[in-house]
Task: structure prediction
Amino acid sequence: MKNKTSCLPQEAGARPSRCPDNSAFKQQRLPAWKPQLTIATVLSSFFLTGAFCLSVGICLILSANSIREFQINYSDKCSECSKLRENTSNWNKECHCSVNFTLKEDMLGDVFMYYGLQNFYQNHRRYVISRSDAQLLGQNVNIEKSYCAPFTTYQNGTPMAPCGAIANSMFNDTIDLFYNLNSSVVQVPLLKTGNSWWTDKNVKFRNPKSDNLSSAFAGTARPPYWQKPVYLLDEEDERNNGYVNDDFIIWMRVSAFATFRNLYRRVERVKQFVNGLPAGNYTFHISYNFPVTKFKGRKHVILSTVVWSGGSNPFLGIAYVVTGTAATLMGFVITAIHLKLRKKKTYFQK
Amino acid sequence: AARLQEYAGEGLRTLVLAYKDLEESYYEDWAERLRRAALGSAQTVYDQYFITLYNIVYTSLPVLAMGVFDQDVPEQRSMEYPKLYEPGQLNLLFNKREFFICIAQGIYTSVLMFFIPYGVFADATRDDGAQLADYQSFAVTVATSLVIVVSVQIGLDTGFWTAINHFFIWGSLAAYFAILFAMHSDGLFQMFPNQFRFVGNAQNTLAQPTVWLTIALTTVVCIMPVVAFRFLKLDLKPELSDTVRYTQLVRKKQKTQHRCMRRVGRAGSRRSGYAFSHQEGFGELIMSGKNMRLSSL
Result:
């Protein structure tokens, strides 16, 4: 038991007091707000929350329903190409595939084209770390020290640019969209830039500095699964070439789940496509390179419009409606319990 | 008596710390299990710095402030109603049952905190058309909702808001966002590109309405049952300290003078509210009004 000194004021000459100061802080006399759960606050918060959640939920469901989406699985449809790609010695053989489809309704507004992968685990622990962000900044780093292994250097010592498993497995199918107008076929104009985050394009990925992009990457080689080196990813647009290529940047932003979609192209709103994609017959011409059959994966192309709340997933809207209903119900239940079962709230008289 | 107070104060603090830590560890546990079941590899969702900072910075200070400053009844009342000391002695506030209730709540919250964002992100797009469900955006969403839910929970638990409690709780939230934006900033990335790989994430992800709606939903769903249970418990089985507090409220409303009990010259005694005891058996007696006189307590 600690020695409790009395905290009465000491006479002169006595031992110094061990008591803490008589300040508001040390004597726990600080002013404070003491909220209590009263029936009014609780009920009003439940009903308000319920109303808010219900209204937000309904808004979300309505906006999700207003989205037009079209999805087609082309790895199943392009079975000859799938079979060809199962054998890796066919890597330099091209394979083209055409998939026809019909849009029953116009897709008004901005239309986005995605490629979707299923059963591809970009979130695998060792896959996610298999990259060298310093190299992707254009710095001259020793990639042997990074987590890129085994995709770091070739046997003859040439380093890979970019290194790592994520870069190596980059999606390399080419998808074009054609519109059948009367008897002629029009290629739908697609935008390949402006699809990645500004910070990714301008901060996270930078090309090594040099006058000429190919000399900047001198002394390096393409990753083993790529068909062309990184400085030939987009020969038409210098600002989309090398590490800052939009498709590359989007692929490097790994997905959280095994089934995901990445933005591939946007429909350019010109000519007949000023308002979006009109209804009609369309064809995808796909240059099929990415093999998925070995791991039972699937590939899709998705065309979709967007709204402020994102895509067509109704989960959030439904969850909000459910929560709103639950909150309102709970409010009623609490009211009922309170009225029937409570004990009379007493307090101490003087 | 002082030792009793310290013990009970510790008990409460441990309880709250347990909840806060359980949140995170159960979340990690569930996330690992889901991943192993679905993927076959154990990848954590959070960025390593978040995990460290969560325990040290974001959630430790409000808990400490609560443990130190909490007063569920003011000190004058503690002298009037010595029965309030009983539950501390009877180990009623911090025992296995309470601990397991805490664990159950932690499991519930951590399950929701993973599966609600998972359901939203499984097929999500940003408002500019790009993909929302990338790894880092998912991590930022879940981490933010975790910090917010735990802060709201400690706010609910804090019955006595001194200025310091306010500062610590709001300050923790502010610190979380400040550190988040700092770690995802360009400057740190350019200095250490391999360490701060989340560059650009905070500003890009937290600008999405879907992300905030997800965080709000998770918060509502995690907190609502807690409020309901607490209120019902207060209403149906009020404890002596609750009655004492209600008395305060009533007296304040009536504006009667009730400083009957001057503080005895024990200026040195430190008060921790959770020294006061709660036992339902005597609550009946008191509530029936038979035992109202000061002297018979």
Observations:
- The two ends of chain B are 18 Å apart (CA to CA).
- Confidence is low (pLDDT under 50) at residues 6-32, 34-43, 256-281 of chain B.
- Residues 46-236 of chain B form one domain.
